[in-house]
Each structure stands twice: as C-alpha cells, then as structure tokens.
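FORM 7B: Structural annotation worksheet

SECTION A. Query
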Amino acid sequence: MGRKGSRYSLEDKLSYIQLVEQGMSARQIQRQYGVKDDQVRQWVQRFQADGIAGLKRRKIHRYSPEFKQKLVELYLAGNTSYPQLASQFDIPNSSIIYQWVNLYTSGKSLTTTRRFRPMKTGRKTTQIERIEIVQWVIANELDYNGATKKFAVSYGQVYTWVKKFKQDGPEALQDRRGKDKSSKPNLTDEEKQALKIKELEARNAYLSKENEVLKKLKELERKDAPQNQNIVPFKHSPKKR
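SECTION B. Predicted structure
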C-alpha cells in the first residue's frame, strides 16, 4: 500500500477502505500504516455515498475568513467533530479545519492559512534529534504531518523512526551505517535526561493547546449567557372563567 509523497492514490484509498470492510478499525490502520484515522473514516464515508467518484481528488478551494470563522465557532461550540464538519460543508480534508481552529486559539489571523505540503525528501539527523522527533509525535497523538512541518523532515522518515522506536526503543534510532552490529548505545545520562525533559515539554505543550481551545469555548459561552438570560420562556396558562 504505497504512498506518493504526501498524497494518496485512488488505489491507496481503496486498499484502506477494503481493510475497514474486512474488520480493521480506522485507529488500527493509523497505528500500523500511519494514515490518520479521521482520513480513513472520511474515505469510507465518501465511498459509501458516491462510490469511486467520491474518492477522486477534488479541486483546491479558497475559503473566506468569514467561512473559516463560522466553522471554528461551530467546532468550539461542541457537539461536533472535524470529520463531521468536513462532511457537512464538503471540505476535502478535516485537517484543514483543525488548522483553522489551531490558528484561532493561538490568536492568529484566519486569513494567513496556506495549504501545507510535507517534505518529500528528508534531511540528515542525529540520534538525539530522531528521538526528540519521535517523542513529539507520540506526545501529540501521532501527528506525523505536524512533525514534518515542525522539524523539517519527511513523512517517511518520521513514520519509520516511530515504528522503530515503538519496537526496539531509543537504541533502534542509532545510525548503524559503517558500525559493528554489536556496538552499544551512545547516549549519555545527561542526554537521556535532556530528552526526558523535552518529552515532558512536548506533552505539556499539547495539553496546553487543548486547554486554550476550552478557554475559547468558555469565552463564547460567557458571551452568549446574557442573551440567553433575557429570553423569557412562554408559558401556557389556562384562562379564568
């Protein structure tokens, strides 16, 4: 089930849909193949609604700031999800809405969004860099695309490092080229401690981002509260005879 850069071919999509039909969950596909579970569910939904035509690439749309603001507020109001909004408003990828919400809760303008294209080629990294990147991905709920943007590495590199790390730990991320297979891990105690701190920082940053979303939601609720208090419920009372 190959990939071409940051895009999935029609054959890729159909193969993942077939796995779902065979009983594999979207979350299991994400863990095994690195494909976002929301993306898999969206493909299944489109395929069930429109067949193969629903899986073909769509034209890139430009969205107005007002439209972005509307969807951000709908998400922050609760009772919906990124995939549900993407389906409701015919947006090709739910991660687009996630980017808008992230910008909004970070205090940035919604007019500055651009479609991000992950790197197709990687770069040289040290073992410590690879471990730091893997820890960030795990702390951020397996956000592979986010890691490619943050650390300027390719999707394939990140996916491979995470897989190796989960199977054999930090030692699996050593550069073994030109080295004897019996060579021991080369991380010092200080480096291990520094990586542990970075891991905690990555997780705290992720949780802080989620807290910011909750704060924005509470702000919206406070703004709506005075209006709701002014609404007088209509009561049916029997007329006196």
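SECTION C. Observations
The two ends are 79 Å apart (CA to CA). Confidence is low (pLDDT under 50) at residues 1-6, 234-241.

SECTION D. Sign-off
Analyst initials: ____
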